[in-house]
Amino acid sequence: MSSVEQKVVSAEETIRSRHSVRKYQPGVTIPEEELNEILTLASSAPSSWNLQHWRFLVVSEQANKERLLPITYNQQQTVDASVVVIVLGDLEANQVAATVYEKAAPEIREMMIGQVNGAYASNPGLARDEAIRNASLAAMQLMLAAKAKGYDTVPMGGYDSNALVKELSIPERYVPVMIVPIGKAAAPGRPTDRLPLEHQVIRESF
């Protein structure tokens, strides 16, 4: 088996073995180097214009996780997981275009920055749509990266967004998209049944 085939098998196994885990072993610490590897892998997610619309707000101090508990409606994984990653979407991602295209040829840089700023200016809803869409891609990649490193996760949409913003002083520029606890499972996640492929896939046209 070639190295390419081995990587494909490994990716498939990671995807198939990832389940939402809600019970975690308290007191487990993810080494900083390993956590950074997970976040780096997550940051390689695709994004529109390569603007990388996500920010990862990482909460690892136990006292700060306790502050999040009522905001997440007392879901125990908030305090038992090793870290809680709050995935934010950047509503002003167009502002990083100059940095993203800093090393591009001048004509390419000017064209891309103009394209990005033009799109953001002409469509008032684009900033939010892109922030949520691209941060969601990063959130999924975060969960797969964590699983590949031997950790479990659960995507959480059940939280008080306004309270979260206030409690952690999140600037208006960023919109909370998802909360992702990461840690070692105390009980395995339950595999869920999936609708048949023919129910989910439409080929060519409705």
Secondary-structure map:
Elements: H1 3-17, H2 32-42, E1 54-59, H3 62-68, H4 77-80, E2 83-90, H5 97-100, H6 106-122, H7 126-148, E3 152-153, H8 161-167, E4 174-183, H9 197-200
Antiparallel strand pairs: 1-2, 2-4, 3-4
Helix pairs in contact: 2-7
Could you say which overall geometry the principal axes of the C-alpha atoms support? globular
Could you say what the CATH topology is called?
A: NADH Oxidase
Helix residue percentage: 40-55%
- According to CATH, the homologous superfamily is NADH Oxidase
Report on this model:
This is NAD(P)H nitroreductase YodC. Pfam families: Nitroreductase. The chain has 206 residues and is of the alpha+beta class. It has one domain: NADH Oxidase (3-Layer(aba) Sandwich), CATH 3.40.109.10. It is 45% helix and 13% strand. The chain has nine helices and four strands. The protein has a four-stranded antiparallel β-sheet with strand order 1-2-4-3. It is globular and about 55 Å long. The chain starts with a helix and ends in a 6-residue tail after the last helix.
Label this structure with key terms.
oxidoreductase activity, four-stranded antiparallel beta sheet, 206 residues, single chain, Nitroreductase, 9 helices, globular, 4 strands, NAD(P)H nitroreductase YodC
